[in-house]
From TrEMBL:
Biased composition, class Acidic residues, residue ranges: 74-83
Biased composition, class Low complexity, residue ranges: 23-32
InterPro entries, sorted: Cyt_B5-like_heme/steroid-bd (IPR001199), Cyt_B5-like_heme/steroid_sf (IPR036400), Cyt_B5_heme-BS (IPR018506), Cytochrome_b5/Flavoprotein_Rdt (IPR051872)
GO MF annotation terms: cytochrome-b5 reductase activity, acting on NAD(P)H; heme binding; metal ion binding
Domain of life: Eukaryota
Name of this chain's protein: Cytochrome b5 heme-binding domain-containing protein
Annotated segments matching region Disordered: 7-127, 140-186
GO cellular component, one term: cytoplasm
Organism: Pleomassaria siparia CBS 279.74
Length: 316
C-alpha cells in the first residue's frame, strides 16, 4: 500500500498537478517525507517536490493505489506523460520490480514493468473502425437533396387522399366532384349531423335492434333481384331497400335513426348503397348497424324463383 510513493521522492501525480497550481504546502508532507526516507533510505526530498504528495494518496499512512493507475490511463495525451510515476503494481518491493532494476531505479519514465493499457483501436478482439475517406463523405446524400421532406406543395406519388375524412353532408356536391379529387375536400360543410328526434339516438337504435322486433319486413330471407331492389325504393308506402356487398337491407326503420338524416339515407334506397356509404363514412359498420334489417341476398333475374315475386307483390 505504499507503492504510490515514488522512489525518487517525487510527488504523486495528483500532487504534481496541485503543485502546479501554486498551492501552499501543508503540514502533511512532513509525514510523507519521513515515510519515504525510512522506506527507501533516500535523502529528504526537496520541499518543492514533497509537500503535496501525502494528501493525494496517503490516509492514515495508507496510500490508495487504485486511482493512480486509472489516472495514468486517462491522461495519455497529457503533456506530463513522460514524468508519470511508475505503476502502483506490482509493489515496489516485489520480485517483479527487483528483477527489473532499470525501470525501478531510473528517473520517472513510462512504466515498462507493466504492459501498456490496450488501445481499443488496435485490439485484436475488436475490428478497427472503418476508415473515413473524403470520397465516402462526399457520397453521402445532402439533407437538402434526399433527406429533406417538403413541407409545402403536393407530396409526390402519393395519389389522392383516401376518403377517410369526416363525412360530408351534401351528397350532390360529392356526386359532382371529380373522381380524382376526394369529394370530402370539396364539400363546404364536411360534417352535417342532423338533430335526431327524441328516442332516435344511436343507443335507441341499438335497443331496437335487440328488441326482437322484425325490422326486415320479411318473414324469411329472400333472394332479391335487381328489379325487386329497384322497386322497393321507399316511395308510395313501399319499403326502402338498399344493397350492400350483395346483401339487401330494409333501411326503412333506420331512417329516423340515421345521424346523417333521412334524406341522405334515402338516396341509397332502391339501389346499391355501398358506393355512397363508403364515400361518406367507410368506418361505419353497415352490417352491424343494420343486421336485423337484413332482407336477403342479391341474385340475378334468372336465379329468382317465382315465390320471391310473391313476397314482393305482398309487400306492394
Ligand atoms: C344505409 C346504411 C347507412 C348506415 C348504417 C349509416 C350510418 C351512419 C352512422 C352510424 C353515422 C354516424 C357516423 C359517425 O358518427 O361517425 C352516419 C352519419 C352520416 N351518414 Fe350515414 N349511414 C348509412 C348510409 C348513408 C348514406 C347512403 C349516406 C349518404 C348518401 C349517408 C350519409 C351520412 C351523413 C351525411 C352522415 C353525417 C355525417 C357524420 O355523422 O359524420 N349515410 N351514418
Amino acid at each position: 500500500w505504499r507503492v504510490i510513493q515514488s522512489p525518487t521522492g517525487a510527488p504523486a501525480p495528483d500532487a504534481k498537478r496541485e503543485l502546479s497550481q501554486s498551492e501552499t504546502p501543508t503540514e502533511e508532507p512532513q509525514l510523507q517525507t519521513e515515510d519515504e526516507t525510512s522506506e527507501f533510505s533516500r535523502p529528504t526530498p526537496s520541499p518543492q517536490t514533497t509537500p503535496k504528495a501525502a494528501p493525494s494518496g496517503a490516509h492514515n499512512g495508507v496510500a490508495i493505489p487504485t486511482f493512480t493507475l486509472g489516472e495514468h490511463e486517462s491522461f495519455d495525451d497529457d503533456e506530463d506523460e513522460d514524468k508519470l510515476e511508475p505503476p502502483s503494481f506490482p509493489a515496489l518491493n516485489s520480485a517483479q520490480r527487483t528483477s527489473a532494476p532499470s525501470t525501478f531505479m531510473a528517473a520517472p519514465t513510462k512504466p515498462s514493468s507493466m504492459a501498456p493499457p490496450p488501445k481499443p483501436a488496435t485490439s485484436s478482439l475488436m475490428a478497427p473502425p472503418p476508415r473515413i475517406v473524403a470520397s465516402n463523405l462526399r457520397a453521402l446524400p445532402k439533407p437538402s437533396q434526399s433527406m429533406h421532406v417538403p413541407t409545402t406543395g403536393p407530396l409526390p406519388n402519393r395519389g389522392p387522399v383516401p376518403t377517410r375524412d369526416p363525412p360530408a353532408s351534401n351528397g350532390s356536391l360529392r356526386l359532382n366532384a371529380s373522381p380524382t379529387v376526394p369529394s370530402t375536400l370539396k364539400t363546404p360543410n364536411a360534417r352535417s349531423r342532423v338533430l335526431l328526434s327524441p328516442g332516435h339516438s344511436p343507443l335507441d337504435w341499438a335497443h331496437l335492434q335487440r328488441s326482437g322486433e322484425n325490422l326486415s319486413g320479411v318473414s324469411s330471407l329472400v333472394r332479391v333481384t335487381p328489379a325487386m331492389l329497384k322497386h322497393n325504393n321507399g316511395r308510395k308506402g313501399k319499403p326502402a331497400w338498399s344493397s350492400y356487398q350483395g346483401k339487401v337491407y330494409n333501411i326503412t326503420p333506420y331512417l329516423p335513426f340515421h345521424p346523417g338524416g333521412e334524406g341522405e339515407l334515402k338516396r341509397a334506397s332502391g339501389k346499391d348503397g355501398g358506393k355512397l356509404f363508403m364515400e361518406v363514412h367507410p368506418w361505419v359498420n353497415w352490417e352491424n348497424m343494420l343486421g336485423e334489417c337484413l332482407v336477403g341476398i342479391m341474385v340475378t333475374e334468372e336465379q329468382a324463383p317465382g315465390h320471391e315475386k310473391g313476397v314482393l307483390e305482398e309487400m306492394d
